[in-house]
Q: What sequence folds into this?
């Protein structure tokens, strides 16, 4: 009996010890997360765009699908030839969509609609690395047969370095706020217990081009202003209060 009692006591002591350890860790973790203060920071880097991305489409209608496809293919070759003459490499000319759809004629007083023809649409995404040619390319696309130039995005192709600079500015901004608060209310900040980041920016000015090639810049090609793009990083740093 005494031996069993000793074993039970030891087992109870071990369980109690484990319980105390778990509680201590829990209290420590709770203190680390509740006795904290957070600071936000923003960093912004402005840079000129170095690439233009143009979305354009060739829309062709005919009474039968074969004629519509053939005519669309002819226009497509004209567009491709024009782009290559502008020094745009094949890798920067991508077919982003191809669609053939019937067109219907509806009776004025109800009844079943009848197919009146077919429509073929081929869409392109074009990367233009020589921004001095933006106006010429936009205007020439329409002349070559692209009757829809949907938008123009002025972008920064490789923003990673700018992102890193913006992030550092955001961190410096948050740290300055933390140092100021330490002096203002006489507290001591400890280790960083949390960090979060929200990156944004790269606004892309959009340029619409009409079915008849009527751009916002008037005749002879649109007047496109390149401006600057902003790379913005917002961060939050959470410190433990000592």
A:
């Amino acid at each position: 009996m005494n031996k069993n009692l000793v074993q039970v006591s030891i087992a109870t002591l071990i369980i109690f010890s484990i319980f105390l350890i778990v509680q201590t860790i829990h209290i420590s973790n709770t203190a680390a997360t509740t006795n904290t203060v957070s600071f936000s920071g923003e960093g912004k880097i402005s840079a000129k765009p170095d690439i233009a991305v143009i979305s354009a489409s060739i829309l062709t209608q005919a009474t039968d699908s074969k004629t519509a496809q053939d005519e669309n293919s002819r226009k497509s070759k004209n567009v491709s030839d024009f782009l290559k003459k502008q020094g745009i490499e094949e890798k920067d000319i991508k077919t982003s969509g191809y669609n053939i759809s019937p067109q219907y004629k509806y009776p004025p007083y109800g009844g079943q609609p009848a197919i009146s023809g077919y429509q073929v649409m081929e869409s392109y995404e074009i990367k233009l690395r020589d921004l001095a040619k933006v106006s010429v390319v936009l205007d020439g696309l329409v002349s070559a047969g692209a009757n829809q130039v949907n938008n123009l995005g002025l972008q920064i192709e490789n923003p990673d370095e700018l992102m890193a600079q913006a992030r550092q500015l955001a961190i410096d901004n948050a740290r300055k706020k933390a140092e100021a608060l330490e002096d203002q209310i006489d507290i001591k900040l400890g280790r960083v217990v949390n960090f979060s980041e929200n990156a944004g920016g790269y606004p892309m000015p959009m340029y619409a081009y009409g079915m008849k090639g009527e751009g916002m810049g008037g005749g002879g090609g649109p007047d496109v202003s390149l401006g600057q793009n902003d790379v913005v990083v917002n961060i939050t740093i959470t410190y433990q209060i000592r």
Q: What stands out?
A: Residues 203-219 have pLDDT under 50 and may be disordered. Helices lie at 2-34, 65-85, 134-144, 160-185. The beta strands are 36-47, 51-62, 93-105, 114-128, 148-155, 189-201, 229-241.
